[in-house]
Amino acid sequence: MSLFTILDLLGTSAFAISGALSAMNRKLDLFGIFIIAFVTAIGGGTIRDILVGNTPVSWMQDTTNMFLIGSITIAAIIFRNKINYLKKSLFLFDTIGLGICTIIGVETGISASLDPIICITLGTMTGCFGGVIRDILCNEIPVIFRKEIYATASLAGGTCFMILYYFNLGENLVYISTAALIILIRLLVVKYKVSLPLFTIHNKGH
Amino acid sequence: MSLFTILDLLGTSAFAISGALSAMNRKLDLFGIFIIAFVTAIGGGTIRDILVGNTPVSWMQDTTNMFLIGSITIAAIIFRNKINYLKKSLFLFDTIGLGICTIIGVETGISASLDPIICITLGTMTGCFGGVIRDILCNEIPVIFRKEIYATASLAGGTCFMILYYFNLGENLVYISTAALIILIRLLVVKYKVSLPLFTIHNKGH
Amino acid sequence: MSLFTILDLLGTSAFAISGALSAMNRKLDLFGIFIIAFVTAIGGGTIRDILVGNTPVSWMQDTTNMFLIGSITIAAIIFRNKINYLKKSLFLFDTIGLGICTIIGVETGISASLDPIICITLGTMTGCFGGVIRDILCNEIPVIFRKEIYATASLAGGTCFMILYYFNLGENLVYISTAALIILIRLLVVKYKVSLPLFTIHNKGH
Q1: Inter-chain contact A118–C66, Cβ cutoff 8 Å?
Q2: For a tag on chain B, would you pick the N or C end, based on fewer CB atoms within 10 A?
């Protein structure tokens, strides 16, 4: 099992846990918890596959993810009151997930011979849209539109990937640099409480 | 016209009525009522076709459904104040719809040579996701995540289908047993007011 | 550059501005503004491509749209307090966008040899669903379900297109008549404050 696969599974697990916690906080029932965990973990990849036309989508072709997400969700339910102590590790896993999913998305775009700008977009969508679907299903404005430099880290990572890829550096170096950049940005952003600017409209004269 | 087709049309109609009632309760306009009726009736099948890659999706290839949904919605608008007296029949039609859509979803998965677990998932999505899209469009947390053993009946039916299919029983027997199981579970659940457990998080120390 | 292309770019721009304004009104951050502008502008076409099976979807195959939407959004942010003075031109652009997107949607259906009814539906979805996704992401019941004769104009235009197309009139004539009809309906509707009927349910006896 390669380092990449291990990180991928870690990322999927972190996304599943974040979905399960979201669902329990909103008092959804057992089925709701599983569904939200599932879509958070595989939603971004599903949208990526549908947009590019890779069907049946990838989680349909390999059941490893389903079993992993199922087990992780059961664990999250059992240990739901202990997970709060793990918030730092969760944040790290979630960030790893973001990094890995961004990389997989960019690579999917490259395989489909799409324009670099589109590849980066695809990477960001793969990384972020699981969380967007989670928030829509839970009837909230997606958190990434409001207060987190989350997508921005993914965009920066995707751009870094494309540049290094263009200079034909080794695959592992590209992977590690991209993931490291995304993780670094998120850690710095949280440490220094950076956020994106808001632009308010002055509705005078109405 | 086979029994299967008749049940399919009954199920589609029940889903359309449930969507139209939802839309009228939220005071949507005429167009909103038609759209919500339409997506409730064909949303699950559309997601199924998109995930598997069966495009153009099935309602685009056969207009019977569109005419049926249109007529049923007009009828639902005209008789909107009488439908409350029909709530029991509606519940039954809706359950038949759930059963039939689950079966069609599982079969789509089998035709695409997908793993049994994926086939069952596909069946449940086909049966339930029309209602999920209806609730999202109406700006509510999907009801199936909150208080109904609806998806669970579909999951149980899908599992039953796969087991009987594996033992190579006749097609009609498989269909009838699956549909009967789903209907039975829903009736029992409503009669005895069973619901899935909730798991609350104790946010102490925050 | 043909008249059609110019109108298409105008329509995309108007949709992007309407998305950016929506996002700023809801106090989303910079990333949120870009995403909402983007999905409003290309959401309808993306759903059209996915349903018909035209993948990778069209905005992935031509980056013109992405650069246009990006620039327009930056402009909308800079001039956000001046745009209110432009509301009439915005309304006109938005209506042009609706007309053009409806035509492109109907044509996509014809190329895929779909039934006329389905072609009209596809045109309406292409014209309207960008706004639907915008409203869902902003956590609101889509405005077109509630108070605007917006989709109805698109439906009427699509029907007009199919009839003229059936009589084999020249392409330009079909385009111009359809777009003119849609724009005319919207202008009249707004001028005379027409709206679709509501159907209320009397929940007596509950």
Answers
A1: yes
A2: C
